């Protein structure tokens, strides 16, 4: 069975994702076991758990204004943290799936393609695009520019 390490397992997206049936073995390490801001913590966890894939959802996200008020934390978590994930995945040749954001686009026309120019609308989007820069350097990766609503309603 293919094994996945999922960062950000206590977050909004992961809380819903955990309800979905699948055929994988998925680990959701807490921040104390895998802190993306600490390269050695990331590498140690991956060496121990040997995943085939890493889904990288961990981030500093809301409230948006925190990225304007505390750029140090935003850079550390979203740019350096994601870079640490890329460095560790590339060392262990683990396929990386990175959750970016639709906010990298200007949001004026819609239906953007991945080749459209980016124009991040705020510091949060800049920090996510900063993470993308590291991910793009690693070819065994996939970037998802996700748009999510505030609440998911299941019927
Ligand atoms: N929600 C949206 O509308 C939206 C839209 C587009 C893209 N995205 C992206 O999709 C991803 C998931 O979003 P979300 O709303 O589920 O995020 P979220 O609710 O803010 O959850 C963030 C997760 O990251 C973890 N985390 C933060 N710092 C960490 C660190 N240093 N080391 C390890 N884990 C850390 C948090 O753990 P703790 O709880 O322990 O701090 C939490 O589990 C994010 O990358 C976000 O940028 C979200």
Mean pLDDT: 95
CATH superfamily: NAD(P)-binding Rossmann-like Domain
Count of alpha/pi helices: 5
Structural class: alpha/beta
- What is the CATH topology classification name? Rossmann fold
This entry's quaternary arrangement is single chain
Residue fraction in strands: 15-25%
List ligands, each type once. NADP nicotinamide-adenine-dinucleotide phosphate
Describe this structure in words.
The structure is a single chain. The radius of gyration is 15 Å and the shape is globular. The protein has 155 residues and is α/β, with parallel strands linked by helices. It has one domain: 3-Layer(aba) Sandwich (Rossmann fold). The relative contact order is 0.17. The protein has a five-stranded parallel β-sheet with strand order 2-1-3-4-5, covered by helices on one side. Helix 2 packs parallel to helix 4 and helix 4 packs parallel to helix 5. The longest helix has 22 residues. The model has no long low-confidence stretch (mean pLDDT 95). The protein binds NADP nicotinamide-adenine-dinucleotide phosphate. NADP nicotinamide-adenine-dinucleotide phosphate (NAP) binds next to helix 1, helix 4 and strand 4.
């Amino acid at each position: 069975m293919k094994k996945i390490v999922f960062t950000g397992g206590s977050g909004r997206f992961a809380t819903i994702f955990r309800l979905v049936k699948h055929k994988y073995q998925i680990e959701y390490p807490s921040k104390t076991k895998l802190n993306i801001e600490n390269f050695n913590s990331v590498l140690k966890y991956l060496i121990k758990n040997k995943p085939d894939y890493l889904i990288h959802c961990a981030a500093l996200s809301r409230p948006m204004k925190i990225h304007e008020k505390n750029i140090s934390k935003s850079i550390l978590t979203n740019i350096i943290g994601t870079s640490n994930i890329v460095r560790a995945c590339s060392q262990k040749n683990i396929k990386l799936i990175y959750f970016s954001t639709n906010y990298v686009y200007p949001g004026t026309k819609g239906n953007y393609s991945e080749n459209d120019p980016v124009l991040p609308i705020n510091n949060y989007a800049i920090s996510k695009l900063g993470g993308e820069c590291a991910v793009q350097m690693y070819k065994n990766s996939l970037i998802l520019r996700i748009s999510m609503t505030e609440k998911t309603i299941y019927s």
